[in-house]
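Minimal example, chain plus pyridoxal-5'-phosphate.
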Amino acid sequence: MKPLGPIPAGFATLDGELAIGGHKASDLVAQAGQTPLFVYSQERIAARVAELRAALPAQVALNYAVKANPYGPVLQVMTGLVDGFDIASGGELAMVTAAGIDPARVSFAGPGKRDAELEAAIAAGVTLNLESEGEAERALAIAARLGTVPRLAVRVNPDFDLKGSGMKMGGGAKPFGVDAERVPALVRHLIAAGADWRGFHIFAGSQALDAAAIAETQAQTIALAARLAAEAGTVPPKVNLGGGFGIPYFPGDVPLDLAAVGQALGEQLAQLPPELAGTAFCIELGRYLVGESGVYLTRIIDRKISHGEVYLVTDGGLHHQLAASGNFGTVVRRNYPAAIASRFDAPVEEEANVVGCLCTPLDRLADKGGFPLV
Ligand SMILES: *Cc1c(COP(=O)(O)O)cnc(C)c1O
């Protein structure tokens, strides 16, 4: 038997079934009318934001990285909970606009922004986190044509990465941001061109569970921002410190020590260098805000045996849950959290493989997990 990932806190049992926000899984399926479905708990999202607010220094603004879950009702819930929104495409710009979010609260990062996406963002008053000098020139030209002053920040490719992170977004050659040593010249150019320079965006990695590594990266990020500000000869209005707070996916993963991260950041901000006097700070989080608030419910369509192994065949799969299938960024496949929702508190009775409905051996949701009988 292979272990399953840890079920996040906050999911209860009601009449033997998994309950989400006080609703039994079977009732949620009946309400949706079909399977599969995603269910998100507004309570869990609000609880997570409250934990963050309690742990982080009060002067640090909290942004939601929309790509973690751009579902309209989730954005609506976030509107009242977080300070800003980070988007990564023109499609996400349309989603935040549809959710009624003020574009002044939105910043737009991501390599490969098309001219039409730059134009829509500039026209709306969204801050662009520029990924290159070439993108800066296109943004300035579009703003000139529109007759607007663009809000432009520079995404920095830092000369360090977030240690222990699942995905490294900095350190060495990267498609993200502008190499640190070229940033001061670009900042001076943006200001000379009449742009509303908004500051720096420095995102060094994702999915880190180690508080000490996050604290070290935040200290390096602040030091780098100060150095770049000194070289550019101007105080950045804002520094986006990135995020990278991870959540447990796999057996043995231990939740991030949020209090330790908050305390270290508080100490950093209490002794800011003069180059950052008056700078506002924010962090941007995606999965940490929403990843443990949702459940993917699929129906077991068939239970079959092949060469002695049990296969629970569901009506879902990797087309909805690519990461859980092991086909997104993992080298060795391990099991995500998975459970039989209709018998949530029942003991383990058999070993089974949970698979999706696609005709590919890649479509697996759990390998040799221990489950109650269905
Ligand atoms: C993906 C991404 C995020 C969110 O990452 P999480 O690890 O989910 O918090 C934040 N900022 C940028 C620039 C990203 O690309």
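The longest helix spans residues 211-232. The mean pLDDT is 96.
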